[in-house]
Fold this sequence. Notes:
Blueprint: E1 7-11, E2 14-17, H1 18-35, H2 41-56, H3 61-82, H4 100-123, H5 131-149, H6 154-172, H7 176-202
Antiparallel strand pairs: 1-2
Helix pairs in contact: 1-2, 1-7, 2-3, 3-5, 4-5, 5-6, 6-7
Amino acid sequence: MNTLNSEALVLFGQHIIWSDMIGNTLGLITLALGFRRSLWTWPVQFLSGLVLFGAFYGHLSGSAGKQAVVMAVALYGWSQWSRGTGKAEDGRIAVRFATWPERATMVAAAAAGTVAVALIFKAYPSLSWDPWPDAYIFVGTVVAMYAQARGMVEFWFAWLLVDLVGVPLNFANGYAFSGFVYVIYGALVLWGMRDWWLRSRRDPRPVLEGAPA
Protein backbone atom coordinates (compact mmCIF):
# COMPACT_ATOMS: atom_id res chain seq x y z
CA MET A 1 0.00 0.00 0.00
CA ASN A 2 3.04 2.30 -0.16
CA THR A 3 1.93 3.50 -3.59
CA LEU A 4 -1.36 4.79 -2.16
CA ASN A 5 0.58 6.87 0.36
CA SER A 6 3.07 8.26 -2.14
CA GLU A 7 2.88 11.75 -3.59
CA ALA A 8 0.70 12.19 -6.69
CA LEU A 9 1.21 15.91 -7.35
CA VAL A 10 1.78 19.29 -5.78
CA LEU A 11 -1.18 21.68 -5.83
CA PHE A 12 -0.79 25.29 -4.68
CA GLY A 13 2.23 24.26 -2.65
CA GLN A 14 0.38 21.36 -1.01
CA HIS A 15 1.61 17.79 -1.46
CA ILE A 16 -1.27 15.56 -2.58
CA ILE A 17 -1.00 11.82 -1.94
CA TRP A 18 -2.66 9.20 -4.13
CA SER A 19 -5.00 7.81 -1.46
CA ASP A 20 -6.25 11.30 -0.59
CA MET A 21 -6.87 12.11 -4.24
CA ILE A 22 -8.45 8.79 -5.31
CA GLY A 23 -10.55 8.25 -2.17
CA ASN A 24 -11.97 11.75 -2.14
CA THR A 25 -12.58 11.84 -5.89
CA LEU A 26 -14.63 8.66 -5.47
CA GLY A 27 -16.40 10.33 -2.55
CA LEU A 28 -17.32 13.25 -4.80
CA ILE A 29 -18.67 10.84 -7.43
CA THR A 30 -20.63 9.14 -4.66
CA LEU A 31 -22.35 12.38 -3.74
CA ALA A 32 -23.14 13.15 -7.38
CA LEU A 33 -24.70 9.70 -7.82
CA GLY A 34 -26.63 10.24 -4.58
CA PHE A 35 -28.03 13.44 -6.03
CA ARG A 36 -29.30 11.44 -9.01
CA ARG A 37 -30.66 8.74 -6.64
CA SER A 38 -28.55 6.15 -8.45
CA LEU A 39 -28.04 2.78 -6.77
CA TRP A 40 -24.40 2.99 -7.87
CA THR A 41 -23.75 5.62 -5.21
CA TRP A 42 -23.28 2.81 -2.66
CA PRO A 43 -20.72 0.62 -4.51
CA VAL A 44 -18.68 3.73 -5.27
CA GLN A 45 -18.90 4.79 -1.62
CA PHE A 46 -17.75 1.33 -0.60
CA LEU A 47 -14.81 1.51 -3.04
CA SER A 48 -13.85 4.94 -1.71
CA GLY A 49 -13.80 3.54 1.83
CA LEU A 50 -11.80 0.53 0.67
CA VAL A 51 -9.12 2.70 -0.94
CA LEU A 52 -8.76 4.84 2.18
CA PHE A 53 -8.84 1.77 4.44
CA GLY A 54 -5.96 0.28 2.48
CA ALA A 55 -4.01 3.52 2.74
CA PHE A 56 -4.49 3.85 6.50
CA TYR A 57 -4.30 0.21 7.58
CA GLY A 58 -1.16 -0.60 9.52
CA HIS A 59 -0.15 2.91 10.59
CA LEU A 60 -3.35 4.92 11.21
CA SER A 61 -5.62 2.34 12.79
CA GLY A 62 -8.23 4.91 13.86
CA SER A 63 -8.64 6.22 10.31
CA ALA A 64 -8.76 2.66 8.96
CA GLY A 65 -11.45 1.79 11.52
CA LYS A 66 -13.53 4.78 10.46
CA GLN A 67 -13.40 3.66 6.84
CA ALA A 68 -14.51 0.17 7.89
CA VAL A 69 -17.62 1.71 9.46
CA VAL A 70 -18.24 3.78 6.32
CA MET A 71 -18.06 0.61 4.20
CA ALA A 72 -20.54 -1.13 6.52
CA VAL A 73 -23.00 1.77 6.22
CA ALA A 74 -22.53 1.70 2.42
CA LEU A 75 -23.62 -1.96 2.42
CA TYR A 76 -26.65 -0.97 4.51
CA GLY A 77 -27.51 1.79 2.02
CA TRP A 78 -27.21 -0.65 -0.88
CA SER A 79 -29.60 -3.06 0.83
CA GLN A 80 -32.11 -0.27 1.51
CA TRP A 81 -32.13 1.13 -2.01
CA SER A 82 -32.19 -2.34 -3.59
CA ARG A 83 -35.42 -3.35 -1.86
CA GLY A 84 -38.81 -2.90 -3.49
CA THR A 85 -40.33 -0.65 -0.82
CA GLY A 86 -40.03 3.12 -0.68
CA LYS A 87 -39.49 3.67 -4.40
CA ALA A 88 -40.83 6.41 -6.65
CA GLU A 89 -42.58 5.90 -9.98
CA ASP A 90 -39.25 6.05 -11.84
CA GLY A 91 -38.05 2.99 -9.92
CA ARG A 92 -35.50 4.92 -7.86
CA ILE A 93 -35.62 5.64 -4.16
CA ALA A 94 -38.44 8.02 -3.22
CA VAL A 95 -37.29 10.96 -1.10
CA ARG A 96 -39.08 12.45 1.87
CA PHE A 97 -38.56 14.64 4.88
CA ALA A 98 -37.88 12.79 8.11
CA THR A 99 -40.51 12.77 10.82
CA TRP A 100 -39.84 14.78 13.97
CA PRO A 101 -39.10 11.62 15.99
CA GLU A 102 -36.61 10.54 13.30
CA ARG A 103 -34.95 13.96 13.38
CA ALA A 104 -34.72 13.90 17.17
CA THR A 105 -33.20 10.42 17.07
CA MET A 106 -30.57 11.42 14.50
CA VAL A 107 -29.62 14.60 16.37
CA ALA A 108 -29.34 12.69 19.65
CA ALA A 109 -27.32 9.92 17.99
CA ALA A 110 -25.01 12.48 16.37
CA ALA A 111 -24.43 14.32 19.65
CA ALA A 112 -23.89 11.19 21.75
CA GLY A 113 -21.79 9.56 19.03
CA THR A 114 -19.55 12.60 18.66
CA VAL A 115 -18.88 12.74 22.40
CA ALA A 116 -18.22 9.00 22.63
CA VAL A 117 -15.90 8.88 19.61
CA ALA A 118 -14.04 12.04 20.68
CA LEU A 119 -13.41 10.58 24.13
CA ILE A 120 -12.02 7.42 22.52
CA PHE A 121 -9.77 9.52 20.30
CA LYS A 122 -8.56 11.51 23.32
CA ALA A 123 -7.86 8.32 25.27
CA TYR A 124 -5.84 6.95 22.34
CA PRO A 125 -4.13 9.96 20.71
CA SER A 126 -2.67 7.85 17.90
CA LEU A 127 -6.19 7.38 16.50
CA SER A 128 -6.74 11.03 15.57
CA TRP A 129 -4.79 14.25 15.08
CA ASP A 130 -7.72 16.43 16.29
CA PRO A 131 -10.23 14.40 18.37
CA TRP A 132 -13.31 16.61 18.59
CA PRO A 133 -13.56 17.90 14.98
CA ASP A 134 -12.50 14.49 13.68
CA ALA A 135 -15.20 12.77 15.74
CA TYR A 136 -17.78 15.32 14.59
CA ILE A 137 -16.96 14.72 10.91
CA PHE A 138 -16.89 10.95 11.27
CA VAL A 139 -20.19 10.67 13.17
CA GLY A 140 -21.80 13.32 10.96
CA THR A 141 -20.81 11.35 7.87
CA VAL A 142 -22.34 8.16 9.26
CA VAL A 143 -25.58 9.98 10.18
CA ALA A 144 -25.71 11.59 6.73
CA MET A 145 -25.23 8.22 5.03
CA TYR A 146 -27.97 6.69 7.19
CA ALA A 147 -30.38 9.49 6.25
CA GLN A 148 -29.44 9.01 2.59
CA ALA A 149 -30.09 5.27 2.86
CA ARG A 150 -33.57 6.06 4.18
CA GLY A 151 -34.24 8.60 1.40
CA MET A 152 -34.45 11.55 3.81
CA VAL A 153 -33.93 15.11 2.55
CA GLU A 154 -32.14 15.79 5.83
CA PHE A 155 -29.23 13.84 4.34
CA TRP A 156 -28.15 17.04 2.60
CA PHE A 157 -28.43 19.16 5.73
CA ALA A 158 -26.21 16.68 7.57
CA TRP A 159 -23.59 16.83 4.80
CA LEU A 160 -23.66 20.63 4.88
CA LEU A 161 -22.96 20.62 8.62
CA VAL A 162 -20.07 18.20 8.04
CA ASP A 163 -18.68 20.50 5.34
CA LEU A 164 -18.61 23.50 7.66
CA VAL A 165 -16.02 21.74 9.81
CA GLY A 166 -14.43 19.49 7.19
CA VAL A 167 -13.13 22.26 4.91
CA PRO A 168 -11.02 24.19 7.46
CA LEU A 169 -9.93 21.01 9.28
CA ASN A 170 -8.54 19.37 6.15
CA PHE A 171 -6.68 22.49 5.03
CA ALA A 172 -5.28 23.00 8.55
CA ASN A 173 -3.95 19.44 8.66
CA GLY A 174 -2.34 19.48 5.23
CA TYR A 175 -5.00 17.46 3.37
CA ALA A 176 -5.38 20.07 0.67
CA PHE A 177 -7.12 17.83 -1.85
CA SER A 178 -9.67 16.77 0.77
CA GLY A 179 -10.25 20.44 1.54
CA PHE A 180 -10.83 21.30 -2.12
CA VAL A 181 -13.16 18.34 -2.51
CA TYR A 182 -15.16 19.45 0.54
CA VAL A 183 -15.61 22.88 -1.08
CA ILE A 184 -17.05 21.16 -4.16
CA TYR A 185 -19.14 18.99 -1.84
CA GLY A 186 -20.68 22.17 -0.44
CA ALA A 187 -21.83 23.37 -3.86
CA LEU A 188 -23.16 19.94 -4.80
CA VAL A 189 -24.92 19.62 -1.44
CA LEU A 190 -26.84 22.86 -2.01
CA TRP A 191 -27.83 21.70 -5.49
CA GLY A 192 -28.86 18.26 -4.28
CA MET A 193 -30.75 19.70 -1.32
CA ARG A 194 -32.86 21.83 -3.64
CA ASP A 195 -33.57 18.89 -5.97
CA TRP A 196 -34.55 16.45 -3.21
CA TRP A 197 -36.61 19.14 -1.45
CA LEU A 198 -38.66 19.81 -4.60
CA ARG A 199 -38.87 16.11 -5.44
CA SER A 200 -40.24 15.30 -1.99
CA ARG A 201 -43.20 17.53 -2.83
CA ARG A 202 -43.76 16.02 -6.30
CA ASP A 203 -43.33 12.31 -5.67
CA PRO A 204 -46.02 10.29 -3.90
CA ARG A 205 -44.99 9.67 -0.29
CA PRO A 206 -43.34 6.22 -0.19
CA VAL A 207 -44.99 3.43 1.73
CA LEU A 208 -42.63 2.62 4.59
CA GLU A 209 -42.07 -0.95 5.54
CA GLY A 210 -44.34 -1.96 8.42
CA ALA A 211 -46.73 0.96 7.92
CA PRO A 212 -50.46 0.21 7.79
CA ALA A 213 -51.87 -0.15 4.30
